[in-house]
Design a protein that fits this description.
It is an enzyme of class 6 (ligase). Its cofactor is Mg(2+). Its EC number is 6.2.1.1. Pfam families: ACAS_N (PF16177), AMP-binding (PF00501), AMP-binding_C (PF13193). By secondary structure, the chain is α/β, with parallel strands linked by helices. The protein is built from 20 helices and 30 strands. Strands 12-11-8-6-7-14-15-23 form an eight-stranded mixed sheet, with helices on both faces. A seven-stranded mixed sheet has the order 5-4-17-16-18-19-20, with helices on both faces. Strand 19, helix 15 and strand 20 form a beta-alpha-beta unit. The structure holds adenosine-5'-triphosphate and magnesium ion.
């Protein structure tokens, strides 16, 4: 990094006030900021009372051994009881917890009473297999209700789960099983993906033969989803339905300490080797339940909530499983891809279930932009009232498209910044309070302390950029990296002692609102200026011909780094640019929006961009291309052929 603070080039003048009907009945008002500012720990103690504790905590935060936090340490609680039983006890047993929509079109709705029965039986089954509190269970599943049941059953008996995204390879699964030292794996024969059954069990079999894994796992519980033929090892492999159906329907939940481990989850690996992030019980559930209530303005009696993430990511853990269910929500769970069997599948689901709150990722929004405005226009989306975004910076133009074409130019859009490590949402507008700015996550939530620091660790003034940092501990913070306290200290707490280093660049605008500028590793140094990839990408996407853009800095003898952009054209690349006139126009457009310093040296139209399986652009591979080097590690990439296509487009490629 250079010494000059990150450039602050983009200016976004559009503002959107919260709609009167949301303001009138908002779950959280501006008072929450004041209350939390006056007494942060008192504020969180109050939020903890949303939960049902077996022993109410009297302590809030123990920060006597920083950065190893303990929250609500003398409280005792059962997470599954909070997510299921208490809603049934309160008379909501008939409320639908999950509307499951399978990719082939099969569907099934589970009430809270049914969920309670399934979770209880699964908890008994795990106990029968000898799983005890503290034992780790790996979960490698498609997006089906049994996945949620499995996670809750683990939580119920105090066995931390480690969910591994179902599309990860046998190798990725093996390293995660080994690192977490899992005793049992829960999987399925397969799931439906892009119109066909896609097997999962064979990857488990393969993973369990790897050195370091062989002999570790006692049992594999297999859910039957597709009915496809799968290999079977007698004694080790057991059918989920055979194991669970014969168990008693009632199970007495036992309370655990607030700091009992709830799960380990490996980060998505956008920047390097995944880290096993450890989350615990009471503080995690407190912040997840509160943020889900506040950011989505959830009314459990009437809302239908849908988060499109996979449960294999933290978004699925916190905002499909634990947050919505702790709050007694009715939610949609969809198994497949957004474009199977047609590009309007998501909007068909919104229409079918009357979805009111939708939470998705910029990558999906940009894909929908690319497919065309006419597709969502064919469906009735009038039930929607709040739209959320997470995972990457959302370009202002994508934000505007989302609000206009999905939200009828009426719904608030909440851009939520957080990480696997933070456990829950940290920076986000509130739908009934915030005057929204397209492309900005804006302000830390009540009870959260975030700021932007310069190289020396000083807070930057409004109007400047630097590094995003969290300045006070928060309830759902990671407790450590599993088995590696030193890496926890080095990665997050050594850059700015006493403060959490998020690894993201950010700026504060003149109003003090926070804008995320992408990974610190992705920031470019051009002629002595730090320029954020996000801002150049957003400038490109603000051109009507561009659907998506990825920008990297390539080593350049004159300017240190030269800006190199890879763009996807709206309507596909057959909308070609043979004479290069469009590229020239795009370069000028960026210069006009951001200033001449940010003008890309090269712009290359491509079909697709390299992305992680969680949908994030992998800029480091594009940097390898731009610098004409051998490509680095591609194991977390969705589709390696994308890189061949891009390389074939380069001038000089054979
Ligand atoms: P790894 O840490 O292994 O490189 P990862 O950071 O992609 O993987 P996650 O924890 O899933 O793994 O992602 C968190 C990151 O995603 C954040 O640090 C940030 O870079 C990005 N991000 C998430 N939400 C937003 C948002 N609303 N705006 C901007 N960036 C976001
Ligand atoms: Mg990260």
């Amino acid at each position: 990094m250079g010494n000059e603070s990150l450039a602050n080039l983009m200016t976004e003048e559009r503002r959107f006030a919260p709609p009167a009907e949301v303001v009138a009945d908002a779950n959280v008002t501006a008072d929450a900021y004041t209350a939390a500012a006056e007494d942060r720990l008192g504020f969180w103690a109050e939020q903890a009372r949303r939960l049902s504790w077996e022993t109410e905590p009297t302590e809030v935060l123990d920060w006597s051994n920083p950065p190893f936090a303990k929250w609500f340490a003398d409280g005792r609680i059962n997470v599954a009881y909070n997510c299921v039983d208490r809603h049934v006890e309160a008379g909501h047993g008939d409320r639908v917890a999950i509307h499951f929509e399978g990719e082939p079109g099969d569907s099934r709705s589970l009430t809270y009473a049914e969920l309670l029965r399934e979770v209880s039986q699964a908890a008994h089954a795990l106990t029968e297999l000898g799983v005890e509190a503290g034992d780790r269970v790996a979960i490698y599943m498609p997006m089906i209700p049994e996945t949620v049941v499995a996670m809750l059953a683990c939580a119920r008996i105090g066995a931390p789960h480690s969910v591994v995204f179902g599309a990860f390879s046998a190798d990725a699964l093996a390293t995660r099983i080994e690192d977490a030292d899992a005793k049992v794996v829960i999987t399925s024969d397969g799931g439906y993906r892009r119109g066909a059954p896609s097997a999962l069990k064979p990857a488990v079999d393969e993973a369990l033969t790897r050195p370091g894994v062989a002999g570790r796992v006692r049992n594999v519980l297999v859910v039957r989803r597709t009915g496809q033929d799968i290999p079977w090892q007698d004694g080790r492999d057991l059918w989920w339905h055979e194991m669970t159906e014969r168990q008693p329907a009632e199970h007495t939940p036992q309370a655990f300490d607030a700091e009992h481990p709830l799960f380990i989850l490996y980060t998505s690996g956008t920047t390097g080797k995944p880290k096993g992030i450890l989350h615990t019980t009471g503080g995690y559930l407190t912040q997840i339940a509160y943020t889900h209530h506040a950011v989505f303005d959830l009314k459990p009696e009437t809302d239908v909530y849908w988060c499109t993430a996979d449960v294999g990511w933290v978004t699925g853990h916190s905002y499909i499983v634990y947050g919505p269910l702790a709050n007694g929500a009715t939610e949609v769970l969809y198994e497949g891809t957004p474009n199977t069997p047609h590009n309007g599948r998501w909007w068909e689901i919104v229409q079918k279930y009357g979805v009111t709150l939708l939470y998705t990722a910029p990558t999906a929004i940009r894909a929908c932009m690319k497919w065309g405005d006419d597709i969502p226009a064919r469906f009735d989306l009038s039930s929607l009232r709040v739209l959320g975004s997470v995972g990457e910076p959302i370009n202002p133009e994508a934000w505007i498209w989302y609000r206009k074409h999905i939200g009828a130019d009426r719904t608030p859009v909440v851009d939520t910044w957080w990480q696997t490590e933070t456990g829950g949402i940290m920076i986000s507008p509130l739908p009934g309070v915030t005057l929204a700015k397209p492309g900005s996550a804006q302000v830390p939530l009540p009870g959260i302390s975030a700021t932007v620091l310069d190289d020396e660790g000083n807070e930057v003034p409004d109007g400047s950029g630097g590094y995003l940092a969290l300045t006070e501990p928060w309830p759902s913070m990671l407790r450590t990296i599993w088995g590696d306290d030193q890496r926890y200290l080095d990665t997050y707490w050594s850059r700015f002692p006493g403060r959490y280093f998020a690894g993201d660049g950010a700026k504060k605008d003149d109003d003090g609102d926070i804008w995320l500028l992408g990974r610190v590793d992705d920031v470019m140094l051009v002629s002595g200026h730090n320029i954020s990839t996000t801002e150049v990408e957003s400038a490109l996407v603000s051109h009507p011909r561009i659907a998506e853009a990825a920008v990297v800095g390539a080593t350049d003898p004159q300017t240190t780094q030269a800006i190199c952009a890879f763009v996807i054209l709206r309507g596909g690349s057959d909308a070609g640019d043979e004479d290069g006139a469009l590229v020239e126009e795009l370069r000028k457009h960026v210069a006009k929006v951001l200033g001449p310093i940010a003008k890309p040296q090269r712009i290359l139209p491509v079909e697709e961009l390299p992305k992680t399986r969680s949908g994030k652009i992998m800029r480091r591979l594009l940097r390898d291309v731009a610098e004409d080097r051998e490509l680095g590690d591609m194991t977390t990439l969705t589709d390696a052929t994308v890189m061949e296509l891009i390389q074939a487009k380069l001038p000089g490629a054979s």
